[in-house]
Design a protein that fits this description.
alpha+beta
Amino acid sequence: MDTGVSDPTCDVVTVPTRQGLEAVDILRRAAREGVGSVIHDDGCDTLGFLVPSGTAAAWDVPGSICLKTDGRGLSVDVEAEPPVEGSDWLLPPGEADLATDPAVLRAALGEAARLIRAADSCR
């Protein structure tokens, strides 16, 4: 399976679970190739989108954080458990590309934030 990146190292974009789940829905509805692996961390109530290594250097999306591992990226073994203790795969490697295209993710997170604001303003 195509991993979506040339090597198995990734940075991780972390967002609140609600926004992340909306973004996953947006990405999957768009039927785009390149929806990457996603980690759900119940303890922190966040989703982590794996993105190509080096993304953190230019990531600037409000309400999200892009983490790198000392410039080396996160090495992901597609057969292993999620790399963050206490987390589970929402979209595991092997069922999705390894990494999500950062530009596609940026657009989906923006749309998700707008949908959440609109829904909250109707309450």
